[in-house]
Amino acid sequence: MKGLAAHVTPVIPALVVIGFFVWFANWIPQTRWQPPQKLAITDAMSPAELAALGATLVRQRGCMTCHTLEPGAGVKGGGRGPNLADIAARRARGVQGGPGNLAEYLAQSLYEPGAYLVEGYANIMPASTGAPAKLGYEEIVAVVNYLQSLGGRPSVKIGDIARPAGAPAASAPVAAAPGDAKGLFEALACAGCHSLEAGKKVLGPSLDAGTLRQAAAARKMSLEAFLLEAIVDPKAYESKEFPPGVMPQDYGAKLTGAQLRSLVEYLAGRKP
Known about the structure:
Elements: H1 2-27, H2 47-60, H3 87-90, H4 102-111, H5 137-149, H6 181-187, H7 209-218, H8 223-232, H9 251-254, H10 257-268
């Protein structure tokens, strides 16, 4: 009996400790993550109601990953895209040579973000009807109303602005010599989302040699194969540290084989 007691005695405190942590874990309120729900938008909604939904969409679909809302900071703000604060007041008359009114300008900026670029910003924003935002027509109208409310008054109802074209525009080839990899890197505005310095994070992962080699090893791929996959099929591997679906998906169509090879060799050949 003494031998049995010697074995049982140390077990009792352990069971008490385990029981406490089990109780404590179950006492903590449990939450369950749910994916964003599709917002119900109807033709009967007023511009103000649509603007309220637009505010949710702008945050839900990742727009604020690059844009900021910094009152008093001017158009620059602190983001990779223009500051949206007071955009309605700044663009009340649209843009010279483009849409002449605010609603049409805002719609164009969502459908064709490269049609007019604010000085100092690269052409890195994808069309809002595609990934990652994937806004439908009614959602576009809601976002336009929300943007109108930033320094102005929402005024657009469903049907007031044009619907997106049925087919996306073909990707325009990148005008950069295949042998000029550094120029190609700049032409694609890669530096807007990636740093070439170790440990410096921007919107996407750093492209320094050490980080790239680690990522390739994690995928059990050669560095060159990993880089090629990352450029032409960025959704194949996305780090959980960074927002998904941001990198353009059409580089495989925009770049020639020679340009792809040149870019891969440039990134793979950089010394740690």
